[in-house]
Specification:
Layout lengths: L2 H19 L2 H6 L1 E9 L2 E5 L7 H8 L6 E12 L3 E11 L5 E14 L2 E9 L3
Parallel strand pairs: 1-6
Antiparallel strand pairs: 1-2, 3-4, 4-5, 5-6
Length: 126
Amino acid sequence: MADFEAEALAVLDYYFAALNAQDNDGMRDSFHFPHYRIAGGRMQVFETAEDYSMQDFHGRTDTDGWAYTKWDHRRLVHGDDTKVHFDVQFSRYRADDSVLGQFKSLWIVTNRSGKWGVMARSSYAA
């Protein structure tokens, strides 16, 4: 595995650890801003870190009883020292470990001035 792939994967791990801990600062630290999310037929643009929070995430998931999220797979599509595209799938779970759903996505992780962060996501998740 190339260094750039390992570094980009570490960002994905960090994001889900922060998400599952409901750690706003950790989630924000995983991203570059502006950050782009395409889902449900529309693009959301989070211009600054303050524009993205657990509140936004809960607004999409609370009605389902979300408790945590895990990766099913993360596959390198393209990559180099500046940008990595991953074909991913993740599952959302309830507290009783029952699956809420599985979602396919494309995540783009970029290296800006030596810091890797998620720049964009295109997801079939709500």
